[in-house]
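Task: fold both queries, return tokens.
Query 1:
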Amino acid sequence: MAFQHPSAPSRAKSSVPADTPRSGVVHVNARHTARYTVVGNHLAQHRELSLLAIGLAVHIQSLPAGARIGIKFLAARFPESEHRIAGALRELERHGYLARTRERLPGGEVVTRTVSYNQPGTRPDAEPALVPAPAPEQPARADRVPPPREPLPEPDTPDLDRHRAATELLSGLRHHDPRLLLAERDVRRLTPAAAAWLERGAAPDAVRRTLAAALPDDLRHPAALLAHRLTALLPPPLPAGPAGAAPARPDPLQNCEGCDRAFRAPTPGRCRDCRPGLRRAA
């Protein structure tokens, strides 16, 4: 007969439910009440999509309408290369999670329209409007800037130093006016547009003055205002010089044959002070 030891500690109760599987993943779920995205298992457990494509689709579906999802923008946002991101976008197109079309705007500019589908096969005209229109009786506010119809500009060529300068420019606008304090996600979203200005030869101080000029007194949505100005006021590219024309250079330095003083001239000879004809004319 075995003796019982009443002083021995009892076995600790496990926090894992009794019906938990003996191996594999165990889920600990908390109910989301804000800032969440519903993703179907047809995407999360897709048998043919790569893990990068699945993650990219989830990221795109979590973005608000009008957000930038260009290849260069995504490559600047994530560690993956442009080549890998372009391949993942093509995967999503093949399986119906993404549609990209090229359209010409009334002004002649060609843009890419992108439609994200959380369920492949859904008709765009059957989906609810993502941005409700304001009621007609609401008075217009000076800081109520509608989302730009054109997408935010992007630089033609990626440049890390230019991207960093654009980020610092946008983050530092609050020093010019405290109302221009931007959230980190807004800085990331607007940085490619500011980099496009720098790529077109605009000096950082000029960009800063343009973005912060004549702000409305009751500004409440600084990111929307800056997005509008970055799009609507984008300067044109710098004009290219004539084909084959080299930039003008100053004449080389020559040593004067009379006084050995250095002067600029296309060929060797005498400086102005040592040339008799020029000296008499002076």
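Query 1 returned. Query 2:
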Amino acid sequence: MDSGAGIDADDACVWTERLGWAFGLIAEDPVARGAALIHLAEAQRKAADALARYNEMWLLTRPLGTDERYREPAFLRARWRHGQAQKRSLPDGVWGGPANGDLATWPGLPYVLLFLEWEARYPLEWTQHAKAWGTKQSLIRKVARARHEEATKAKLTDLVEVIVHRAYRCKDREYVRVARAVDSADLRHRLERAADSDSPWARCHAGYVLWLLDRPDLPNTRRVWRSWVAGGAASLL
């Protein structure tokens, strides 16, 4: 295996080496975001090239059979290089999760939050360069299930506030899970302000989240959401 094999270690320094550049994607400075987008495009190109080589080696080693293929050094090298290239790109780099299942202490958590914040604050750039609705949904559900420290709860509270103020985007309804997980007086105050704002989107979204926070047993289903949007929330009681 290549000399860089040790980079598979799952610690904060390794994550910084792989994806530290990605924080530029959520920078307020458009120049910084532009530089990060250029870096992302190159990372995605390398991942695509590595995948092509992996697929090529898959075909070349097909006659060997499965057992022999996974003992073939050239195939294993191509497979490893593809995995490493994925870890340096988005959305691939935030797939998976901690080996011990504890997302709250996982060194990859800041990058999961980064990916969600990028979609929340710069949705057009996210859609153009790394659209992955399934990944968005999976990450929201994962962070909603974890037991987080206060700093992470504050970040998630900020995300919920951003989401309710904008026009609905695919999988935004999943943030109800997050709101329920980090429910607090601060969050409810922000949602109440949004529900009283001049924005029809904010009134609808924030009102829906507040309504469900007061009804923890009511499922956050598509039917419930559609009924709320149609103004039929009273009929669900």
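Both queries returned. Flag for query 2: The chain has twelve helices and no strands.
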